[in-house]
Amino acid sequence: MTDTQTRRAPATPAPPATTPVSSSASPEEAREDRRQRAVQSLGLRLDGGVERFDRIARLAHLALGVPQVSLTVLDGDRATFPGAYGFDFREVPREQALCTQAHAMGRTLVVEDLAADRELREHPAFQQFGIRFYAGRPLRDPQGNVVGMFALYDSTPRTLEGEAVDALEDLAAWAEQELVSSGESRQARFVQTSLLPRGPLVARGWDVRGSCLPSLAVGGDFFDHEETRGTVHLTLADVMGKGTGAALLSATVRAAVRSTHDAVTAGVDLGVTTTRVARTVQADLDRSASFVTLLECALDLEDGYLRYVDAGSGLSLLVRADGTVQRLGSHDRPVGALGEDSWTEHTETIEPGDRLLLFSDGLLDLLQDPVRWSDEIGQLVLDAPDAAGFLAAVEELTRRLTPLDDVTVLVAFRDGAA
Length: 418
Hints:
Elements: E1 4-7, H1 27-41, H2 51-64, E2 68-75, E3 78-85, E4 91-93, H3 99-105, E5 108-111, H4 124-127, E6 133-140, E7 146-154, H5 163-194, E8 201-203, E9 206-213, E10 219-228, E11 231-242, H6 244-258, H7 261-265, H8 270-287, E12 292-300, E13 305-311, E14 316-319, E15 325-328, E16 346-349, E17 355-359, H9 374-383, H10 387-400, E18 407-414
Parallel strand pairs: 1-5
Antiparallel strand pairs: 2-3, 2-7, 3-4, 5-6, 6-7, 8-9, 9-18, 10-11, 11-12, 12-13, 13-16, 14-15, 14-17, 17-18
Helix pairs in contact: 2-5, 5-6, 6-8
């Protein structure tokens, strides 16, 4: 590997030059400032172990036979080990970490014997901890900043060559992907969560609230509710796929739907506004080879009159106060399936004591019979003491079972005394 430095002699290449942060900062200060900001941007928890990082460290121990492995992140004046094997601590002062030298080099560093290295034989890793062998490979973010090191340690000298070098590279590449993608997912999840309603809508004898439980850090499901002049707009959508790409498309769909709320409140047919939404997002869906199932409702809080469009979902229930379970639906296709499609508005009335439920297909994975689901889900709605209790019951299901897809629910419960 051309970017690997094996230390049998003390020669240390000069760090690569970078553009300073300010005209008064030295290249070293600028590089450190950029590196620290890159680490902070990952949004990682650095005060303890992370199991997915520990798992990679354990595999490195088994594959390469080294007694100690770390995924090291330099954070200010400390070196943290969010992933580790063979250590009984999770951080050390930065000056005690061998990874500091490898960070500065910006390339894989292999030291076969610290005791024979004129520079590193004075290092605390050798003097205090008895480390003789070290191999560290930088982990970079998409901008090329070194945000961590994947390192091997041994208390006896050893060499690293052939398949062992390839194994280190493969494991480090895996660690790099986990390190960077976890930070990206955390940020994407924060943004996606911020687009959800801030809290339930409780007014005029109604309780409207929802929950979105992605199977990954981020997902393609979203729900929304917003009141405008006595009309509550309820939206539940499921973009094909999971992860950051689906989340980006769901944000686009949400914005397009919200842009029609004033027209819907004014009485414009929901089929017309849904068609407008579809035309707005069609190009994005075409480019990403995706489609969206969409439930869009307009609910009059005064008389319970419900207008709705079902674009390829079929996953909504109206549970009456007398226990009757009614499936709502239509034969319209998902948004993005065919560019020339149009959609039809349907109507119902939600009487006092009735409960409306919209949900994504991830909920079906948690049922005993996902084909004949209406009775089981209807009973779950009936058994709930209130809207909050129903959401809690769904969350309990996801804890007990493993959802294969995002689980999103949106409910509108009407008080029986209304």
